[in-house]
Amino acid sequence: MHRKTWIFILLVSALTLSGCGWWKDFRTRNKPVPNVPEVLYQSGVEAYQEGRYKRAIEHFTRLKEQHPLHPLALMAELGIADAHFSDENYAEADLAYTDFLNLHPTHESIPYTMYQIGICHYNQMQSIDRDQTETARTAKDFERLIAKYPKSRFALIAEKKLQECRQRLAEHEFFIGEFYFKRGKYEAAQMRFQFLAKNYPGVGLDYKTSVYLAETKKRLEEEKARLAKGGAKKKEVTDEYRSIGVW
């Protein structure tokens, strides 16, 4: 028998074996899901638990669009957001959570939704030498959650992460201030250190900031004195030349 024919027979035999093999599981996973809210939701949950996030989104989206008035449609909306989040698609997750927040502002899952919005930005934060836009947004998200739902368990978790955000923002300000200081840009450095001292006290940078502020002030005064001395000397030379008729 030809070798290719033999391999084909083996494959067909393996695929058609009865029992709980992978082929049966494959067929079960990929067969059409009935257009029934409960079945769609359960299929979405199972796909999510198996890490098949795109398939989960498909099931939840069908439920939301084809049965918008069914009680499970709300859970499907959250399921879509959670699937995007678990798939590390934070921009889409942020949009989905925000839509849920705007459409259902009194739902019992709002504290969780607000927390997840913050975590979407938290997971995109960069190191202190990079842009801190996501860190600032994360801090605002957590501040909003804590202010609106202070007794929520999500607010308690957000408190710790908010402190981390403030620490990172403070370190970013110090990093830039020190950068300007080392390059002799003392006015720019002073502005950064003053902002840091005013807005981020108690995060562990108070002493270092005060030292740099004092040294920056000293350097600025020395620079001002040099400029004043240079100006006086220039005026003295000018007067001298004028006195002898050069100018």
Sheet with the most strands, sense and barrel status: none
Q: Hey, roughly how much beta strand do the residues contain?
A: under 5%
The CA-CA distance between the termini, in Å, is 113 Å
Q: Mean of the pLDDT scores? A: 86
Label the structural class: mainly alpha
Shape: elongated
The percent of residues in helical segments reads over 70%
What's the helix count?
Answer: 11
* Low-confidence parts: 1-27
SS elements, strand count: 0
* Helix-strand topology string: HHHHHHHHHHH
Rounded Rg: 32 Å
Can you put this structure into words, describing what you see?
With 247 residues, this protein is mostly helical. It has eleven helices and no strands. The radius of gyration is 32 Å and the shape is elongated. The chain starts with a helix and ends with a helix. 26% of the residues are buried. The model is unreliable at 1-27 (pLDDT under 50).
